[in-house]
Structure to design on (594 residues):
């Protein structure tokens, strides 16, 4: 990783951290325990991959920093809420996340449920409260886009398909369909909302960017599956080997590790090609792409 | 109940029902089980008190029907999601709702979790997707208002306070604080969002309307507590006597039934007075108020 990118990464990670820190309700504000738990799950952890994508896409479209950070934070709050709910006993029943006890282990199940619910509300509050663009009509469209990405035909729907697939043999297209929803929809929203905070890209460019986002979303998941199969719990900060243990279909269970790695590289190349079509250099998005695909590989 | 109001009531209830019916994803659209469960919990039941308040407030401010029904549906979706999550074993652990098995009993806990999550997303999607007013800036403010009403300093926060209060002796002001959040915030949003779809009320009138909404929200809860203590499970369509069984503080446990009834009547009068201050007749809101306070009394 070159020094310039490393500096950018740290900078952007601390920017999103301090924005979230300021926007989350204080833990001395009632109900204190709920607010403390919301801060516990959101702050001080995570690679912030979705916000990084928003920032990189925002730079490309000439967006203002103060706008992109709002959209990036909203996407990250939706992501954080989904992790809290996914870790609950009735879902993946996980006890470790980002190297810390999961929310329902640290607090209790009811609190974890309400933490997730409240983080989702807060995401939409931020999207409506602060100006993302000079065009309120466009801001409404962006809120709709985030809601669709989060909902039953996006992330939550992907989670439902995931649950229904435990113990089943899926084909590669079926697995892809699941992940396009479960992780892909929100990653796509992260890229597109970041870009739409600016005015610098035309519709054709936005459509290439959308294709880039789809590729990168899938690549992210393929890498996740490889890491789950190969990395240690300590390195991941979450329980490793859960997929095989829970008999979940993954890219590794269908393709094996070698072919899964090759698929990730193919998707990475496909993402590069989509960026080529933009007609403008997108060095940050290229760097973030490599950062996503090559983590721990 | 007079015939005119009865006609209005049926009309509005069927209007919101058919709007929700059209906006909820079809149950033959993937993921089918999730969409079927979303429709199961939202459709075909409930008095639709919050939408009725939105409609009555919208009539007062000269709002278009096509706008008010969107806001009313969004509020009802937030309410429906909260019921599904509240009924989960880690919360109130209830098995009966609107005379039918609760979502996690009919389906399973994971599905109920995702149903609630998806209904919340859908509420914000509707608020952003369809025009509520001619002013997109105002629509953004309305989305913010709904998000605040739903979140950790609104409904979800009230639920957290409720959980923390089980088995405790609360004072009347503490109980009121809880309910202002738990049920009050969303009822207030129902009234105000309905009114704000139109342009007919000035800021002073809106502030009286807001006071009306606070009174009616509390009155609603007091009546709920009395009904829980006095009505049968069959009449309620949900398990009666749960509050006492779960050792929850209620208006009845603090005041007794007689004084709780008197409090409901006082709040009703306070609500009437707030409407008097509007300077325009608000016959529908008066009728809906009576409908809320006098149900089953």
């Amino acid at each position: 990783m070159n020094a310039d990118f490393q500096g950018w990464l740290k900078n952007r990670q601390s920017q999103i951290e301090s924005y979230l820190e300021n926007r989350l309700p204080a833990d001395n504000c009632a109900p204190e325990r709920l607010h403390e738990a919301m801060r516990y799950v959101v702050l001080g952890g995570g690679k912030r991959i979705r916000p990084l994508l928003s920032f990189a896409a925002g730079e490309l479209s000439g967006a203002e920093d103060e706008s992109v950070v709002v959209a990036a934070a909203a996407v990250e709050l939706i992501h954080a809420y989904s992790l809290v709910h996914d870790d609950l006993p009735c879902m993946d029943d996980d006890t470790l996340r980002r190297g810390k006890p999961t929310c329902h282990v640290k607090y209790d199940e009811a609190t974890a449920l309400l933490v997730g619910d409240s983080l989702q509300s807060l995401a939409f509050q931020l999207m409506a409260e602060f100006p993302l663009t000079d065009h309120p009509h466009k801001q409404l469209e962006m809120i709709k886009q985030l809601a669709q990405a989060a909902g039953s035909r996006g992330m939550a729907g992907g989670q439902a398909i995931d649950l229904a697939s435990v113990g089943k043999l899926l084909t590669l297209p079926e697995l892809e369909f699941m992940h396009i929803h479960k992780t892909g929809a929100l990653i796509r929203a992260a890229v597109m909302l970041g870009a739409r905070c600016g005015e610098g890209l035309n519709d054709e460019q936005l459509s290439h960017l959308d294709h880039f986002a789809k590729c990168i979303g899938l690549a992210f998941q393929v890498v996740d599956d490889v890491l789950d199969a190969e990395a240690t719990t300590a390195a991941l900060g979450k329980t490793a080997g859960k997929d095989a243990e829970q008999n979940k279909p993954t890219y590794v269970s269908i393709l094996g590790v070698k072919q899964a790695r090759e698929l990730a590289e193919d998707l990475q190349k496909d993402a590069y090609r989509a960026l080529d079509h933009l007609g403008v250099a997108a060095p940050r998005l290229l760097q973030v792409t490599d950062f996503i695909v090559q983590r721990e590989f």
About this structure: Chain B touches chain A through 53 residues (CB under 8 Å). Chain B has one domain: 3-294.
